[in-house]
Amino acid sequence: MERRIIHVDMDAFYAQIEQRDSPSLKGKPVIVGGKSSSRGVVSTASYEARKFGVHSAMPMTRAHQLCPDGYYVTPRFNIYREVSSIIMDIFRSYTDYVQPVSLDEAYLDITHLVRRDMPASRIADFIKKDVLEATDLTCSAGVSYNRFLAKMASGMNKPNGLTIIHHGNVHDILMPLPIGDFPGVGKVTEERMKTLDIHTGQDLFNQSERDLINWFGKRGPKLFRYARGQGDDTVQSERVRKSIGKETTFEVDKNEDEEILAVIRKLSQQVSEKMSQHGLVGDTVTVKLKEFDFKTVTKQMKLPDPISEPADIYNISYRLYTELKSTERPIRLIGVTMGNLKEKSFENMTIYDFIQRKSE
Ligand code: TTP
Ligand code: MG
After folding, report:
1. Per CATH, which fold does 1-166 belong to?
2. How far apart are CA 182 and CA 223, in angstroms?
């Protein structure tokens, strides 16, 4: 069966975060990198700075020459890691098949979510909106039927792009591409290709597989396939799902029990829905609070029997919350997680599940 893969990549990741957190940098050429003075290299540059020719891995001194009036910022890795974990959690709320590639980039296999009324592009759009809502940052997404095309697609309309490569447009997209844009074609291979008069996707397409093997050995068949839009479609999810959690970050810190409990009720509902989608029950409930000063406190309860109903999750979460919450300390985030998950077995199926399963 053909797969549907999304590649998501944040736009000018470090630089966009710096612009978000210092509004005076918005719309300005921002260069994030080594020590702001002279040594070191550029980690990344905002799109405004890229117009001056500044890019990742360039020596800082060169960046200063190209863009003397740029805003030079040293990286804040803790923040970048925090944002990364938020976006990865969003991806995992859609599918278990998430393969992170770096802090700001991942492949998602969403084949099982696609329906006639819910094409992959629409799911990608939802993910982009969720990322924007949770982080105030834009990303670009590419949708296709294998990984290399999905990645190519995500890079085609940056920033804030959404691009689909399908069987109808793949040939037109690949043929004019410079050969260096194909996967596995680094600087050395690119030079060798040029000596063979292979400059574009079309030139690569025109070669026989046998010639490619002669020239590039084991990589020959892969290159032959890439030119035809064929590639690996396996997304390696790095973990088996052992817990399902949802959390909410408040725009302003909250201290009112009533308001917070309404959110806990909603989170319990969402966790329960997710568990039932996957046919899971669990016997451990964890509530997490991040207090106004970023101090995080959690409390967990192990139950004698597994649960999955929203009301059950809520009741336990409610107890944990009342034990955790200090009256004097407003919170900025609350999370509810069900752990120690296992497949719903015959015994703990409700009669409703049973009827539903039989009628499927
Ligand atoms: P990229 O996704 O390659 O670049 P980007 O997000 O800054 O810009 P875009 O995707 O819109 O083209 O890398 C993600 C982050 O990784 C980047 O913000 C900074 C860091 N990085 C480095 O520190 N050094 C590098 O050479 C590269 C390429 C990235
Ligand atoms: Mg990026």
Report:
1. Alpha-Beta Plaits (3.30.70)
2. 8
Ligand 1 near 105 CB (within 6 A): yes
- Is residue 57 in contact with ligand 1, taking CB distance under 6 Å? yes
H helices present in the chain, as ranges: 13-21, 47-50, 60-66, 77-94, 120-135, 147-154, 170-174, 187-195, 201-205, 209-216, 220-226, 257-277, 310-324, 351-359
Q: Domain 176-226 belongs to what architecture?
A: Orthogonal Bundle (1.10)
The span from the CA of 271 to the CA of 250, in Å, is 18
Which ligand has its closest atom nearest to the C-alpha of 155?
1
What is residue 357's predicted lDDT score, i.e. its pLDDT? Answer: 44
Which fold would CATH assign to domain 243-359? Dna Ligase; domain 1 (3.30.1490)
| Ligand 1 pocket member 158 (CB < 6 A) | yes
pLDDT tens for each residue of 247-271: 999 999 999 999 999 999 999 999 9
**Between 160 and 294, residue with greater pLDDT:** 160
Catalytic annotation present for 323: no
Q: Can you give the residue ranges of every domain in the chain?
A: 1-166, 176-226, 243-359
Q: Kindly tell me if the per-residue pLDDT of 204 is higher than 70.
A: yes
What integer is the mean pLDDT of 152-166? 98
Give the active site residue among 18, 105, 247, 291. Answer: 105
Q: Residues 93-125: pLDDT tens digits?
A: 898 899 999 999 999 999 988 888 899 999 999
pLDDT at 278: 78
